[in-house]
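User: Could you walk me through two proteins back to back? I'd like the raw sequence and the structure tokens for each, with a short line separating them so I can tell where one ends and the next begins.

Assistant: Of course. Protein one, sequence then structure:
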Amino acid sequence: MKAEDILARVRYDLPETGRIVVGLSGGADSVLLTYLLVQKYGAERLLAVHVHHGIRGAEADRDAEFVQDYCKALELHCKVIYKDIPALAAVS
């Protein structure tokens, strides 16, 4: 299925103005969602946010790097947030 076919089937309930924040994990679902939102609303309206949880080591580092590279290719603003979740969980 082509991106245009998917775009035609997706129901968007987002306002026509204002900033859209999309969670971008680097997995196939969020990558496709981000791509479709860029196609529909334009990169200038979007902010991609990736959270590096500090759990999966080098694999998570690669995810964060992929997300940054992907956003750069789409000319999309990107914010990577680093949180040490194991440390936070130990305090709780």
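----
Protein two, same layout:
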Amino acid sequence: MHILLIEDDEIIRAGLAALLRDTGYSVDAVETIAEGLASAARRVPDLTLCDLRLRAGENGAEAIRLL
């Protein structure tokens, strides 16, 4: 299973990505919605996990809608 993780906090992003990879998932961990869209264009995720409040006024609900 491939997971797209969108999280703007570097420590949380790294920790959660490591935990998911250790569990056996393929993970693409990105910081912004634009990076998430680019990632999904390369490989469609089976699951997307996204922080609700992202930097620059972006939010997780908008990320999911755009994906």
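The beta strands are 2-6, 26-30, 47-50.

Let me know if you want the two compared in more detail.
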